[in-house]
Amino acid sequence: MNQYIAPTASVGDNTILGHNIVIMDNVEIGEDCVLGCNVVIHDNVKIGSGCRIDDNTIIGKKPMFSPRSIFKDQNNWSPTIIGDNCLIGANVIIYIQCEIGNNNLIADMATIRENVKIHDYNIIGRGVAIENYCTIGNRNKLETNVYLTAYSTVEDYCFVAPCVATSNDNYAGRDKERFKHFKGITMKRGARIGVGSIVLPGKTLNEDCLVAGASLVSKDVPEKEIWIGSPAKYSKPVPDSQLLDNNQDKKE
């Protein structure tokens, strides 16, 4: 079996390692984990117990910075940390300086950029892209091919349907003034977004609101309201049966 495990790395009891694995300096992997083939774990990464990491996944990758990027390289990166009982699919990339909590599922081909914090019991779907400086709370679901722009916040019990896109730049890449105004979206507790919707920079989706599929959100959405259309406008209240506090699912 072709493997490289740095002498300073530690691998817990009953952890199974696949072919062609690379585990770099000072990596810590807990007990009862399963790592597939061709997995690369970069320096200083810490992985809890009971985790599964599938083929061709990279954890702790440093970003690349264009001379034109608003983000700059730094000398002292903190390590990526992954909690217990996480399931991480194939061809996933989790960058350096990320904090991933316990019991998360991160599906195949997802990308999680640097400086992202994800708490517990989330589902990050296939092909989801989470850009840098995002925070995701507990028990959220981001479905296939969601794009979550940098500087966004998702609180708890939120739902984002497939192919939702978000933005953080009202200047569309021109005018230096834009550097003062970058802001992603904010989803308050229990907010939901339907399939194929677009949310413009800096918009807040308040508690228990619902954005219908294929909508364009250009204003903040009030709590417990359904908005629909392009641009999205008020349609009706969210039914009582769908409110988070009346929904048994929130206790799961």
Would you count the extended β strands for me? 33
Mean pLDDT across every amino acid position:
94
* CATH architectural grouping of the largest domain: 3 Solenoid
Uncertain residue ranges: none
Q: Major β-sheet, in short?
A: 12 strands, mixed
Major sheet: arrangement of strands = 3-6-9-12-15-18-21-24-27-30-32-33
Structure summary:
With 252 residues, this protein is an all-beta fold.
Structure report:
- This protein is an all-beta fold.
- The chain folds into two domains: 1-71 and 80-120, UDP N-Acetylglucosamine Acyltransferase, domain 1 (3 Solenoid), CATH 2.160.10; 140-242, Hexapeptide repeat proteins (UDP N-Acetylglucosamine Acyltransferase, domain 1).
- Helix content is 0%, strand content 31%.
- The protein contains no helices and 33 strands.
- A twelve-stranded mixed beta sheet has the order 3-6-9-12-15-18-21-24-27-30-32-33, with no helix packed on it. A ten-stranded parallel beta sheet has the order 2-5-8-11-14-17-20-23-26-29, with no helix packed on it. An eight-stranded parallel beta sheet has the order 1-4-7-10-13-16-19-22, with no helix packed on it.
- Strand 32 (225-229) and strand 33 form a beta hairpin.
What key phrases describe this protein's structure?
10-stranded parallel sheet; mainly beta; UDP N-Acetylglucosamine Acyltransferase, domain 1; 252 residues; 12-stranded mixed sheet
